[in-house]
Amino acid sequence: QVQLVESGGGLVQAGGSLRLSCAASENIFRFDAMGWYRQAPGKQRDLVATITRSGSTHYADSVKGRFTISRDNAKNTVYLQMNNLKPEDTFVYYCNAYRIVLVKYDYWGQGTQVTVSS
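Below the sequence we write its predicted structure tokens.
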């Protein structure tokens, strides 16, 4: 059973920075891609950033230039560096990993709260 464990969330003032970590229970090369999503209560979960096995990245327009996704293959960990945080970045952030073996298998972490105060 794949486990993804997030850490690094918290309370920060606007303009500040946080780094989220997502540690996987297995070699992350086994996933086609990993990423971060965020969700407000009662709302849909939205894509923030993804990184593929080869290292290609994709970002939501709202975070381009402020957030950076990266991976450390030796540690089986994916990071999300968040700079210049804004109050509208306040969400629960979820780590995601997926692989496609005939069908798509999605795996999710438990989520970590990020709160940005104005």
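The mean pLDDT is 96.
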